[in-house]
Amino acid sequence: MSVNFYDAYKAFTHIGYSGRMDQSSISQNRQSRRSPVLLSAQIVIEGADTAVVLRNLSATGALIEGAKLPPVDTETTFKRKDLEVSGRIAWVHGKFAGLAFDRQLEPAELLRQVPKPKQRFEQQYRRPGLTCEPLSAADRKMLEMWATSAPLARLGD
Q1: Higher-pLDDT residue of 36, 61
Q2: Is there a domain that residue 142 lies in?
Q3: How many other β-carbons are positioned within 10 Å of the β-carbon of residue 52?
Q4: Count: domains in the chain
Q5: What is the pLDDT of residue 69?
Q6: Looking at residues 133-154, what average pLDDT do you find?
Q7: Domain for residue 35, yes or no?
Q8: DSSP letter string over the chain?
Q9: Higher-pLDDT residue of 26, 45
């Protein structure tokens, strides 16, 4: 009994991930490291550009999301900024598809497509400090006027 790899992959994906196709965080046996992104891109099918969302990118392929994706084994060209690489649709599941490139991307090509991580800003929650600076003459006068401007008739008013 021989098992077709594609059929096994479809069954595993359907059962194991319940329709959630962004598997970039799952440790898998991959040919190259994936970079999770959320960027606009295009695929060219029979001369027509189709807008897609790039979900992750590696040197050998990409995970794309789109409303109208071509069937499996369709020859296509992937475009993102200055990158243009031919490939084929390896699998389709709902609005997600795996794209296998015909050639492996060079590290420089790959890094140009992946945005640099934003610098993390760590908030510091500190109580405002109390200073022991003496009041200026103007500040002292304003404080005295404020404290004596409204005499209280009785406690609590």
Answers
A1: 61
A2: no
A3: 26
A4: 1
A5: 92
A6: 79
A7: yes
A8: ----HHHHHHHHHHHHHTT----TTS----SS--EEEEEEEEEEETTEEEEEEEEEE-SSEEEEE-SS-PPTT-EEEEEETTEEEEEEEEEEETTEEEEEESSPPPHHHHHHHSPPPPPPPPP---PPPPP-PPPPHHHHHHHHHHHHSS--SSTT-
A9: 45
The whole-angstrom separation of Cα 41 and Cα 65 is 10
The pLDDT, as a whole number, for residue 77 is: 95
For residue 64, give its domain range.
5-113
Question: Which pair of structure tokens corresponds to residue 102?
Answer: 């015909």
- CATH number, domain of 63, equals 2.40.10.220
Average pLDDT in the 34-55 region?
A: 88
Residue 57 has pLDDT above 80, yes or no: yes
Residue 18 inside a domain? The answer is yes
Q: How far apart are CA 76 and CA 48, in angstroms?
A: 10
| 110 Cβ contact partners less than 8 Å away, ≥ 6 residues apart | 35, 57, 58, 59
Answer for the pair 70, 54: CB distance below 8 angstroms, yes or no. no
Q: Would 149 be classed as within a structural domain? A: no
